[in-house]
Amino acid sequence: MKLLTIVVSLFALALCEEDHVDWSKVKTRDLVVTNPITGEFRVNSRIVGGQEAVQNQFPYQVGLLVTTPGGIYFCGGALISQTAVATAGHCLVAGTQVEVRMGAHNVMSQEITQQRVVSLNFLIHPGYNPDTIGHDIGVVILPAAVTFNDFIQPIPLPSYDDFDRTFAGLPATMTGWGVTADGSTVISETLRFLSTTIMTNTACNIGFLGQILPSHLCTSAESCVGACTGDSGGAVVAENKLVGIISFALSFSCQAGWPSGHSRVTTSLDWIVSVTDAVPSP
């Protein structure tokens, strides 16, 4: 029994050690940032002004390491079924494979709570437009059904009854491992979150000078909190439903107090259901 205890302890310790990834070379593809003055769209993203989550507080949040010809990029994602993860479409552009890290708190360590798989099967919404950031949603199909536990759980999709809802005024939670301050280039080791409020697209359009589309959803930046580098693809949750996928922000500063932009899940719900085994909420 003593020997078994030692072996188990050593196994658990090994799982908490640093993994094979050279994180100094991992890039953030993150928030597709918009400059409303010049109309420029470019890639850049993070959870700014949030706080560290506790272990298994957000069991639907996953980390994605996307291999491309130009290197490895990090994005977030949300588990929506036993075999599917929702993320931002721009995270998957030019990808050749995606490593999915589920059940992670410290995404850079091999925690005993984690399940990791590599997928070669992922899709970008056919309506994704990199020029307008419309329908910036993609899905990663897992090679086998994941085993749910306290650390790995799906987040429900919206219902078809939510199609006409704006969700404006509702409190929402955003999650991710993105960088935590302007000027930083390294993502957070541990999962972070922030509480925010969903805005109307009309109000959001004021900050983005008319560039907000029906397929977008915006959250406010009260007290200069919001999404910024490394958070792209992460979950925006309201009423315990995945209402948004973190997508874009303004280029000049994540802490400037401007809204954060996301993909509105209801506008892509039919597509998500058609290509995965995820189902809408009742």
TrEMBL record:
It is an enzyme of class 3 (hydrolase). Keywords: Disulfide bond, Hydrolase, Protease, Serine protease, Signal. CDD domains: Tryp_SPc (cd00190). This is Serine protease 10. Residues 1-16 form the signal peptide. The lineage of its organism: Eukaryota, Metazoa, Ecdysozoa, Arthropoda, Hexapoda. Belongs to the peptidase S1 family. Pfam families: Trypsin. Residues 47-277 form the Peptidase S1 domain. One of its GO terms (biological process) is proteolysis. The keyword Protease applies. InterPro entries: Peptidase_S1, Peptidase_S1_PA, Peptidase_S1_PA_chymotrypsin, Peptidase_S1A, Trypsin_dom, TRYPSIN_SER. It comes from the Eukaryota. SUPFAM superfamilies: Trypsin-like serine proteases. The keyword Ribosomal protein does not apply. GO terms for molecular function: serine-type endopeptidase activity.
